[in-house]
Amino acid sequence: MIEARRLHILRAVADHRTVTAAAAALYLTPSAVSQQLAALEQETGHRLVERSARGARLTAAGEILLTHANAVLAQLERAESELAAYGSGEAGTVTVAAFATGIGLVVAPAITELAASSPGIRVRVQDAEGDASLLMVLDRQVDVAVAVEYRGAPREDDPRLTRVPLYAEPFDAVLPVGHRLASAERVAVADLAKDPWIGPYSGNPCHDVVVLACEYAGFQPRLEHSSDDFRAVVYLASAAAGVALVPRSALRGMDLTGVVVRPVDGVAPTRRVFAAVRRGAENHPLLRPVLAALKAAAAPQA
């Protein structure tokens, strides 16, 4: 008999690609993870994980078992949801991981709505970038992720997650006031090819949006300054340190002294935001109202 918790450990190793990282995510020791993997291999009669200096990867047998593990774990989430509904589980705590702007745009308004419509639900919020928040959901560290589409993000048909689209927003060009294009009504990304750039660190989903926009315009941006805080990006632009592309919502209420903000000419780079839960958990009586409140809060942005 295969134990479900061992399937969860196998998936964590596949997601994190090292035993050490999977153990940290699951709040276990690496030796405990190794012991559970060894027990799973004994249960199945197959070698499931290959380890090397570069990390751990699943064998062909491990990949087969992972496919079934995703289905089994999703079914267990559904069972928990139905049992909670049977027990009228309309009171409890839901933990949401979201990036800073998403917290302001949809999470905080959703909390206000839930206080009136579902007073038994308490929401706890953790600030996390979109790529990190999805793993936090899969590792059961949080219940809901508000995340950003990025290169390498789980697809909509990923068997581990259920996604709920929230909103999409364009990026605007942020230029120093003395920039040669400051008086233009719109700015083409291609016209910024020779400028120094300011942008998020690699790994931040917005970094991918900026780099892809520049690649589509025919060049690689010369990123001279890096920050995941868009306020810092704007401050650097105001000091004429470079140009940037910034999500429109991140600029709201910000001190824009020293910069000009212009829409991008042509097809603007876009940040697509969605909520995600573990597949099978979308109908949990605690999570369903939270997802509905997030969707409602996002409607004005969509």
From TrEMBL:
GO CC field: protein-DNA complex
The keyword Glycoprotein is annotated on this UniProt entry: no
PROSITE patterns found in the cross-reference section: HTH_LYSR
Gene3D superfamilies: Periplasmic binding protein-like II, Winged helix-like DNA-binding domain superfamily/Winged helix DNA-binding domain
MF GO annotations: DNA binding; DNA-binding transcription factor activity
UniProt xrefs under Pfam families: HTH_1, LysR_substrate
InterPro entries the UniProt entry points to: LysR_HTH_N (IPR000847), LysR_subst-bd (IPR005119), WH-like_DNA-bd_sf (IPR036388), WH_DNA-bd_sf (IPR036390)
Keyword Cytoplasm: no
Record-annotated HTH lysR-type domain positions: 2-59
Keyword terms, alphabetized: DNA-binding, Transcription, Transcription regulation
Family according to the record: Belongs to the LysR transcriptional regulatory family.
Descriptive protein name: LysR family transcriptional regulator
Protein's organism: Streptomyces piniterrae
Phylogenetic placement of the source organism: Bacteria, Bacillati, Actinomycetota, Actinomycetes, Kitasatosporales
